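Q: What structure does this chain adopt?
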Amino acid sequence: MQSLDAKVALVTGAGRGIGKAVALSLAKLGCRVVLAARTSVELEKVKLDIQNDKGVAIAVPTDLTRDEDIDALVRESQREFGAVDILINNAGWGKRAPVVRAKVEDWDQTLRVNLRAPMILAQKLLPAMIAKGEGAVINIGSVSGKTGEANGAAYSASKFGLIGFTESLYEEVREQGIKVAVILPGFVDTPMIPPVKHLDRSKMIQADDVAQAVLYVLNAPATSCPVEITIRPQRTPHK
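A:
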């Protein structure tokens, strides 16, 4: 995309962590940002940060497991700013448990947030991008989408699926000028990873590092698309 100024970016999971970092970075470059997450208090803080920096943003509390919330998010985005140019599917959820003891409802929520919601949002927002002949869908995955992990089967499955969705969607819309990419971070210092003794958080990937990868995709020349980016900590955070 030649310029991000006045583009409309929708960021899920925007209240904290990676989503917040991505939203702030896009706003600094002139994007009008739609902030989506379940917690309205966190969203309002991010919106205020953007506005205090002379940016433009709206906050739309959204539960991505509810189709009616997704529909409302799309309607509010279009009502306030018009068509969305950039979709950042960042929201993620997971609960660790061995397969034999996991709750099916936890599996359902993991798959709905991490895979189903990104697919539905892309389906709803892509037609306007295709009509313009430009746009971007960037999915925030995980290195868990490359390698299975004991006690994380549903989360890994959702992230494996997100990679497959990204690759398939890229093949469908590449000729229409739409960039589609998945970013696969390793350990990121966000609230999603609770404090544990064996992790040195100063050596973990920072949320801003992932935001820079998003900008790299958006700033790639029209003749190329970084479809998959893996981000690893430079030094191991395991003590």
